[in-house]
User: Fold these one by one.
Assistant:
Number 1:
Amino acid sequence: MANAAFQKAPNRFPILNTYVNALSLDETVAEVEGIIARGVPTQHVVVNASKVNLMEADPELAKIVNACPLINADGASIVWAAKKLGIPLAERVTGIDLFLRLVEVAAEKGHGIYLFGAKEEVVAKVKAIFEEKYPALRICGYRNGYFAEADEPQIVSDMAASGADMMFVAFSSPKKEYWVHKYLDAIGIPFVMGVGGSFDVVAGVTDRAPKWMQDHGLEWFYRFAQEPGRLWKRYTIGNAKFVLLTLKYKFTKKGERQNG
């Protein structure tokens, strides 16, 4: 795959069943600029507790994620685990923060973007919001995330012909990782990033946590309070599994050092 065509981003550390690049938001943006300049189709991911749990149960997903040259720590849970495991991760780079910064950079530097996913009314609203905020922004294409498998060849062909430099994919995990991995080379867009529910936030369908909650690692609790029926399993059972997984890795590494 194209991801393996060049050296991975710097400051990359193994953590649990994956890796993380210990980079600031600004450093990550600089890496993305380099990816665009090289023009090699590259899949980007962010990791959090939920994704680590999914990867633990799905080796193929883990393989896809770990092949990505640039992996950011999206969740406060990853920052917590990094401290427990002695990994020098100073800050998290959330998917939505990186997405919004890259749209701003695209408008400033003339990069074309493609918006893919969510409901038609949502992605159309995101397009309109960005066009109003950034008149110079080149939106090379957009499409909702509802389609049949038979539609995919035409969708991929349209993306490949769009001339975009960056594509943002608003699917949930693990669908976005699998879909991007499958079509990355055929799409040919240099930088392809999964952004989950970010389109819904930009469009005002869902609210993001207040800044003080983001800064104190409580964004997950705000999301849980908004949709407890849908998210209770992810944030109760899932977080407990993540803590146990972190402790397992911590004591396994400690045992390896003592026996080494």
Number 2:
Amino acid sequence: MYKIHCLNKISKVGTDLLTADYQLAEELDGADGVLVRSAAMHEMELPESLLAVARAGAGVNNIPLEKCADKGVVVFNTPGANANAVKELVICGMLLASRDIIGGNHWVDQVKEEATIAKMVEKEKSKFAGTELLGKKLGVIGLGAIGAKIANAAVALGMDVYGYDPYISVEAAWSLSREVKPIRNVETIYTECDYITIHVPAMDSTKGMIQKSTIDSMKDGVIVLNFSRDALVNEADMLEALKAGKVRKYVCDFPTPVTAGQKGVILLPHLGASTEEAEDNCAVMAVNQMMDFIENGNIKNSVNFPSCSLGACSKAGRLAVHHRNVPNMISLFAGACAAENINISDMINKSKGDYSYTLMDLDTPATQQVVEAIKRIPEVLKVRIVK
């Protein structure tokens, strides 16, 4: 019986997929798997029993990735499961920034008791006039599952769409409308576009990518949208640009003390994936990935270990080994199996940065002796008998 602990409320559509071999556990201690959304895990003591953490969402900044990797704990996320929800909110953000919908709504609330409200509307509505999206240039930085959907939706709205992603996947490229203009230099988006939306992960190379020098190169009156992470934008520089009129509006899904309440800033309380459908999709994807890993040892959509799969196990045994990415490991694993007269019928080894993962299908069941022998190999992080 595998124990799964939920650190946050996880959609029942997902947890209902757990079979009779699984039990939802009240405590983290002794858990084989963890399902999480936004709960902070950096200070948590991870139990030795833990095999995997599945994040029902894309961002994993709340999870200690290296700490998990060093313990041989696979961290999954669910890229694309909430893509449509975020896409719709970004389109909404562009409309909120282009048309003073929020200001108009506030005005109506203020005069709602006035008997002459209908006449007042005709006099005051010009104060809330805006611009249309049709024919405007949109720059999408990052063409993953979310960025590609936004680009396609903007094309359908009649926008002139520029897309930049030097690491675009084949799947994302296939999904893009042929009307999206591929851009080789991100500077072209900064200088040409009326709207710029960012869809890249927050890494050392991307943090603060929108700052004074990049803002200075943008068109006057540009609208910047950030539904990825607040750290991608230097907020002090953005406020200065708003004050100077260089940036018309800054729309962000991550309120901070710096930006909250500031003129020209439209902030939302991290609503990107807050739809029933997205929560269901993320939960289903997270649970399926965790079950496949626990039952078959297969890894898909991990952020700290490589994707690796031998499919469903039909052999007598299967071993999973988490280890550091150093030479000669495969021969050592094979030697340990040979010493126990265990034949390896199939094997796959994949690496991701400093970490590697090896799956071995065996003609005979794995023994505790071979597990202990592999554990003694330097740079091995975890060994598990999958079957």
Number 3:
Amino acid sequence: MYCIKCGVELSEGQKKCPLCETEVYHPEFLKAENDTYPKKDTPPEKFEQKGLMFIVTMLFLIPIVLCFLCDISVHKTVIWSGYAMLGIALAYLVIVLPFWFRRPNPVIFVPCDFVGVLGLLLYIDLTTHGSWFMQFAFPAVGSFAILATAFVSIYRYVRRGRLYLYGGAFLAFGGYMLGLEALISNTFDGGVRFIWSRYPLTVAWIIGAMLLIIAMCKPLRNSLKKKFFL
């Protein structure tokens, strides 16, 4: 809207021109809304997540049934299909199952995923007549499950001190790699040796220590935030 005398641009609702004080013609006039495209009164259709999840479940179920039927028809017993069926079921547990819930809680699903991994490893150990599950697989997977569940729980329920959490996670991961090599060498070689675990341990502890130093030093933390827009 402009002044009819001097042409100065006016804001909406002004009654006089600020330059020449000329009264604005129809100052109460407001811009009419653009009704070229009328609003739709019909509500948008809701997305049915359960229907999609049912279809995805059927897509996972089909290869499970096919593997079982193929194995039975060829060998008259379950030989290789058990590994395939449990592997597909584990993938369903990790990828698909949380989407059945409106707000899946990772604190619950993360340990459930590790239980599924342990179940698959136990099946492999029993079918191959191995003796490594209780000595190696259970402590290795179980300890990592405890670390992962603790990290997810703290990340979900504690809103402050994320740098301390990340730094502690790297330190714990480095220690886990050291213990993992000890389990592997003790189970399969008959002795405890540390060869390759020193490298991930060193890298993880350096990164973890760096994160803890940044978390404890407020001026350094503020400087990094300004430089890297964190």
